[in-house]
Amino acid sequence: MPKIAPLSGFPEWLPAGRLVEQAVLDILRRTFELHGFVGIQTRAVEPLTQLLRKGDTSKEVYVLSRLQEQGEAPADAGAPSRRSSDKQLGLHFDLTVPLARYVLENAGQLPFPFKRYQIQQVWRGERPQDGRFREFTQADIDVIGDGSLPFHFEVEAPLVMAAAFEELRGLGVPPVRISVNNRKVAEGFYRGLGLDDVEGVLRNLDKLDKIGAEQVAAALVTECGATDEQAAACLALAAINGDDLTVIDRVRHLAAANHIPGAGLLEEGLAELATLLQEAVRRAPGVIVADLKIARGLDYYTGTVYETTLLGHESLGSICSGGRYDALATDGRRTFPGVGLSIGVSRLVSRLLSAELVRPTREVPTCVLVAVTSEETRGASTEVAAALRARGIPTDVAPQAAKFGKQIQFAARRGIPFVWFPGDDGPASPDQVKDIRSGVQVEADPASWTPGAEDLLPTVAPAVP
Q1: Which string of b and e fits 322-346 if b means at least 16 CB within 10 Å?
Q2: Which residue from 246, 276, 414, 462 has the highest number of Cβ atoms inside 10 Å of its Cβ?
Q3: All residues at 6 or more sequence positions from 24 whose CB lies less than 8 Å from its CB, including other chains
Q4: DSSP assignment string, 181-212
């Protein structure tokens, strides 16, 4: 049999890694539901015409087709499909496009504002690298309005994510920083300077961390028509950050120094940013910070934008991002604005595993292994297992009636904490259960014995250095 080569960009965790992923997902799901979000799941495929509407994604979409269409010869692997593009299907590359379609199709049955969370796999045909995959799991929250959506949801969304990451700290996940900006501040400031190519300015400022201020300034002059003074003012705005209202004062001072009127879109954005920072200081101090260089979804977001980094692991890039959009979808009569954030679960889990930041207490859910004295008495062992399972205790039965020492080794290799030894019928030889970590062995009845709460199920904890 030829050697199987792994497919790059399609992660498959070992059992211990899967337990870590499940622990992360359980916390996210529980946190989202505690804040009033309802879970949905959408199909994996969408019409290609819909998938290609969101930005420059044509090179990333995986197109879905059968090897042989009915009545047609097999198509060349590199040849374009003969079907019209409106009938072609592709795997979704995020969960926002499916949400837009879901909202339009079900608008008559959904309560608005509609608060939903969605945890699913997505597919993106980009070059795999550290933290970037072709198949990965995302966890999204969004609040969708009908016609309008109050600003306070732009405050609530990052606070929900801050709460989720705070819960994840218990697993050993490092702290995060949620950086926020407001597109109204940026647009109002740039237009106040006399720069109309707002998207061009944002696009270049988004490269600050990669190419540095000097090259960004040069690009603003050559590509966006800025003067040296205008470019310097844009860089000064991008340099402003902080977690309190001094940020607002610094922006207003910079605007006044550049003769930008203190009203209009700029002031509207500053008022919204101030409201968000005030609530963040109260509910998530030090976690949510303003960073005026954040620029996401240049052709998509219209208000607050968010970008989250794992402290100590900034090279991984953003692990959770999103923002406010005024037109998630429209049917020509109704428009559905929204705000949301998306966690790259696979990106986060890959770092937790590769950096050995967390570990499960055991690699299997089994709490008790019931030993088998002989194959003739296996039935007695399975009855014990059934009694324990009926009481919610994860239990397995030894695969072979080997010497007890080998059965204990079987349990130890998997991290199973207890081995159960069925006794002979009668009070002279009762059942016994052994904690193979401490060596303590006691008499036990499967109808009443209960392990400690910390042993019942595997848990995930910070790795011990």
Answers
A1: bbbbbebbeeeeeebbbbbbbbbbb
A2: 276
A3: 168, 171, 173, 345, 348, 349, 352
A4: EEHHHHHHHHHHHT---HHHHHHHHTTHHHH-
H or E element that contains 330: strand 320-330
| 58-72, 168-182, 341-355: least confident range | 58-72
Closest CA to 99 of 39, 149, 18: 39
Amino acid at 61: V
Look at the block and give the residue holding tokens 């088998």. Answer: 372
Whether the per-residue pLDDT at 34 is higher than 50: the answer is: yes
DSSP code, position 413:
H
Give residue 242's identity as a one-letter amino acid code: G
Conformation bin of residue 43: beta by default, left when phi > 0, alpha when psi is -120 to 50: beta
Helix 264-283 crosses helix 152-168 at what angle (to 10 degrees)?
30
Residue in this structure with the two tokens 């959770």, named with its chain if needed: 320
Which two three-digit tokens encode residue 230? Answer: 């205008």
How many other CB atoms are found less than 10 A from the CB of residue 375? Answer: 9
Where do the H-state alpha helices sit in 35-112? 48-51, 96-106
**Which is nearest to 348 in space by CA: 394, 317, 304, 326?**
317
Query: Each residue of 79-109: pLDDT tens digit?
Result: 444 455 557 899 999 999 999 999 999 999 9
Whole-angstrom distance, CA of residue 247 vs CA of residue 243 = 8
Name the DSSP class of 128.
-
Report pTM: 0.90
Which H/E stretch holds residue 179? strand 176-182
Q: Residue 156 pLDDT > 80, yes or no?
A: yes
